[in-house]
Write a structure and sequence with these properties.
Elements lengths: L2 H8 L5 H7 L12 E9 L5 H14 L9 E6 L2 E7 L3 E9 L16 H5 L4 E11 L8 H7 L6 E5 L4 E5 L9 E7 L5 H22 L1 H28 L4 H43 L2 E2 L6 H96 L5 H30 L1
Parallel strand pairs: 5-8
Antiparallel strand pairs: 1-4, 1-5, 2-3, 3-4, 6-7, 6-9, 7-8
């Protein structure tokens, strides 16, 4: 191998091959009209991903086929082609049967799969669709045929991809539990073009249903959110009045913030998913290039009329959550500021009180020191009196009272100096 190619192999990013493969998977195999398809979209969540893979592998094993590894594969099961795909929350099972048909929806292609396998599919049915593609040169179905396949009051009809195909659907779940989509190939360029159109239309419907999952969540949580807004309004009035205990108000705001955090945690993922899926729906609508047929509603009309209000409801709910969270944060900050201000005032008053008490203690200490000088001097002079009386016995001419009186000023000065010196040494040491 040339050195340059050896370098590329040795320095390959570990995810390079997977990323390249990701760009080429998730495609229907090419097929031409006439053909029929059945697709199941099973909501599995992230908990049943492995179970969905095992179920798809079991179906392949029933036909003696070993599927490739990964989150997507296409295999031939007898006269059917089976496409399995795993998304974050759903698994899709698509069955393709090529060839002519008498009635587009009378016998679903899904029934070609074993009944016990269908019953064992993990998850819940989010969408089930029958698709029939009529070949070029076949005249469009008349009103009688359309009435036998769809609900006339809800019938949608339009042309897509620059008049290359015409589609019909009523977006209803029929007695067999499946929706219906009829496609007339008018000028599709190739089998790959046919497969891409069907896949885009199916992804549009699948993502539409995934986006709509957020609407019930928003609707069910809206009364709780409204109640939280009312609680915050009441707290705001109490905060403005300033008559309530700040500690009690802070406790109420903290409880309100906890309730809001719980609702946010319970709904954030679904709201974000709704926004992402809705964007995918609008992207697919642009890619199929819908054109109106007089007298019928179009795919754009149906999608806009039903999906756009739901998405806006979810966006409004998310915005209310964010606004309420911000207002709760402001209320909490205001109460904390008031509490801190109150504490600062209390601390200032406490320091002033301590300073006043310190002055009183100093004056008391000075008074006590003065009394201590007098008391110590009194006892000292008393002791000198006893000494003077003793000396009087030895020296009769010595007047003990005179000696005691003369020593009193000296003793007072000495005691005052001594106490002042002791206090000064303690202060210097501190």
């Amino acid at each position: 191998m040339p050195p340059a190619l050896t370098f590329l192999a040795e320095r390959d990013h570990p995810l390079r091959a997977a990323l390249v493969e990701e760009m080429h998977v998730r495609r229907f195999p090419p097929f031409e009209a006439p053909a029929r398809l059945s697709q199941l979209v099973m909501f599995t969540g992230e908990e049943q991903i492995e179970a969905a893979r095992q179920c798809a592998e079991y179906l392949c094993a029933c036909f003696g086929v070993t599927p490739p590894k990964g989150r997507y594969f296409v295999v031939a099961l007898g006269r059917l082609e089976f496409v399995w795909e795993q998304h974050t929350e759903v698994s899709t099972y698509t069955f393709i049967q090529r060839g002519a048909f008498k009635h587009p929806f009378k016998h679903p292609v899904l029934l070609e799969a074993p009944a016990n396998w269908i019953a064992s599919l993990p998850g819940q049915v989010l969408r089930a669709t029958q698709i029939a593609i009529m070949g070029g040169g076949v005249p469009p179905p008349d009103d009688t045929v359309l009435a036998s396949c769809f609900a006339p009051a809800d019938l949608m009809c339009c042309e897509v991809q620059q008049h290359e195909a015409r589609i019909w659907s009523d977006f209803r779940v029929h007695e067999d539990g499946m929706g219906r989509l009829l496609i007339l190939d008018q000028a599709l360029q190739s089998a790959a073009d046919t497969a891409r159109l069907v896949q885009r239309l199916q992804e549009l419907g699948n993502y539409r249903n995934m986006a709509l999952l957020g609407l019930p969540v928003a609707q069910s949580a809206t009364p709780t959110l409204t109640a939280l807004e009312r609680r915050l309004a009441t707290l705001a009035r109490e905060i403005a009045a300033g008559s309530a205990d700040d500690a009690r108000l802070l406790d109420k705001v903290s409880t309100l913030a906890a309730d809001l955090a719980r609702i946010t945690a319970e709904t954030r993922y679904r709201m974000s998913a709704t926004r992402a899926y809705a964007q995918l729906v609008f992207d697919r609508m642009r890619s199929v290039d819908v054109m109106r047929i007089p007298g019928y509603q179009t795919l754009n009309d149906f999608t806009d009329r039903r999906l756009t209000p739901a998405v806006r409801t979810c966006e409004s709910f998310t915005q209310r959550l964010e606004d309420l969270s911000q207002r709760v944060s402001w209320a909490s900050s205001l109460i904390r500021t008031r509490i801190e201000t109150t504490l600062e005032r209390q601390n200032t008053a406490l320091l002033a009180s301590m300073d006043h008490r310190a002055h009183l203690q100093l004056r008391l200490q000075q008074t006590v020191e003065g009394l201590s000088v007098v008391a110590i001097s009194y006892y000292f002079i008393g002791i000198l009196g006893y000494v003077a009386k003793l000396l009087n016995h030895t020296f009769p001419t010595l007047d003990a009272a005179l000696l005691q009186g003369a020593a009193a000023p000296v003793v007072l000065a000495f005691v005052w100096w001594l106490i002042h010196r002791v206090r000064r040494s303690h202060q210097d040491g501190a």
